[in-house]
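Subject: Interface between my chains keeps coming out wrong

I've been trying for a while to get a sensible model of this assembly. When I model each chain on its own everything looks fine, but I need the whole thing in one frame so I can look at the contacts. Pasting all components below, labels as-is. Any help appreciated, I'm running out of ideas.
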Amino acid sequence: LQSARKGQSTTNLKDIVQKKLEMLGEKFCADIDRGSFPAIRMKSRSTSNIFYSQELRQYVLGDATITRSSRNIAHLRPLTQMIWTAYFVHELIKQKKTSTLRDVYYSAQAYDIFFKDQSESDNIITDLETAIGHPRESFNVFPEERSAVFGDLTIEYTVPGYEGRRLNLSSHPDGVMIGPALTDAKFIETSADKVIVIEKGAMFTRFVEEKVYENFNAILIYTAGQAPRSTRYFIRRLNRELGLPIYIFTDADPWGMHIAMVIISGSANAAHLTELTTPDAKWAGVWASDIIDYNLPSDRLNDRDIKRLKELKADPRYGDSHWQRQIDIFMKIKKKCELEAFSRYGLTHIVEKYLPERLKELEA
Amino acid sequence: LQSARKGQSTTNLKDIVQKKLEMLGEKFCADIDRGSFPAIRMKSRSTSNIFYSQELRQYVLGDATITRSSRNIAHLRPLTQMIWTAYFVHELIKQKKTSTLRDVYYSAQAYDIFFKDQSESDNIITDLETAIGHPRESFNVFPEERSAVFGDLTIEYTVPGYEGRRLNLSSHPDGVMIGPALTDAKFIETSADKVIVIEKGAMFTRFVEEKVYENFNAILIYTAGQAPRSTRYFIRRLNRELGLPIYIFTDADPWGMHIAMVIISGSANAAHLTELTTPDAKWAGVWASDIIDYNLPSDRLNDRDIKRLKELKADPRYGDSHWQRQIDIFMKIKKKCELEAFSRYGLTHIVEKYLPERLKELEA
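Reply #2:
Try treating it as a single job with all components included. I did that and got this:
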């Protein structure tokens, strides 16, 4: 059994974020004590300052900065909102509670801080992510959507009431949810040597039923479409902390490809964050070429699919030759297909034939 | 601790369904042996044969029947498709595998049975539900979407590889998924005296963090919007087998009301089934009247909301005076609000004030 190498990392992360929030507050107080207007300088998130980094294989912010100062009347409102938000999430961490974007929006009203709508409060939280340099999940603001995991990984909880308790993630064959408790858990031990990420619930259940976790030593993750941010963070941890390779299976269409890509390289609007990507994760299928090679039942690409493929073709994240080739094949055959299409050859075909062939190919 | 009263029921259900499928096959064979055209008679699902039953508090089918006979060339295709589908799901039960609607559509191609699209195969599965009298989950065709549960309930698995293994559903604070394994599990023991069903992930997490399961002896269920059928079946089992009252919390708008109503009284297109409803479950909030009584932050109803409220007003499932009154209040104040709106009074307000007041009111 493999032991987790950096099991302490999340606990440390919370401490670091708490410290950074406190430093932010101390800085404002010091400004006031010195008789100067409180202000904060942070990286600009304007599109002109977003660049694709070949090295990090994700979008990043450039060097342009903006200063938000209480000297400027136009800045007073967002600055005040940001200071309150920093206070609020600091309380969340201290009290070990979690929240959501929607919840933060309403909570502000308890403090007579008003946002005109949720997009205003969401934007301030993104400012705070930029200033602190960590995703909102690290200050306990979690997404509404949830996905699930199944496999031989023993974790240890750090959330109140569960501190020190352990669970093996193969305890429940339908999968356990990836929420705040799992996000902050320590990784203790695993016998797995890979992670298989699956877009569809049907295939996740098929992989559990066909004992992929045992026969392929895999931890299985179900994303339920586009992976929620906390799931992308969890996948990154499995890759970084346990050194496990990540294989992503999606439908063979531009939307499936992009589910894989967002796990691998993130999105442009998270260019201010580097903790949500897993650049070494691999899109393992279903490829456009698989539609031909495995003679899979398919549907015709529609106009929206084709428009999207053209966008992806020009996207720097898709610069690699494998991605480019798959996009070209999609365009040529004008077909797409779903993970379930393998059932055309019987329910177990995908696990007994396709999966081992693909893993062998990718591991080579 | 309370022990489950009818812990064996799901195992028996699978046996019953398997037997019914076999009887269906034997009937076709007997028809052929007798030299007559194989045929099946079943209740008509045409809208003229769908009625609301005050007694069952759900839509049911009337006495009109249809006969599908191989004597009629126009019936040959759907009859053949239905026989194959019955064979396929019988195999699923025998091999203890599960599938989805999408998967059944593709699997047919492995047997040279063709459906022109998924709606055709979905329809045949509904025919089979009608003929057998049990929901498709009972013959292992599960929904793609999943929801979650958390609370003190010990279950015992019956799925392959897990037979006899037990799990307490409070083992994972993010919740465990309600999928095939949980649907077929036996209920062993619980200390809970109620079930609280919640539409939103944020509130589910809040209820876990604020220890509602402990302080209110509740099993918590997260539906993620409209409850998937397997979740409705699971809620019914908690009510019927364990005798637990069910309280449903949704947003205060017509869509939230209807999430509660579908759990309580089902939908018109499941009029052929009686195992998916929980007529004694209660919509516990957020009511239109709560927006006024608790002075909650609200949004204006839009045209779609108002149109929907008018439909619900005329819907026989909403005949009860409490529903009618709430619809009238919505119409009058022209406002809606979300579960998260309680955060306006602090994160714990909903659990510390609203929840106990509402439960007291409903239990009175």
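Reply #3:
Confirming on my end. Chain B has a mean pLDDT of 93.
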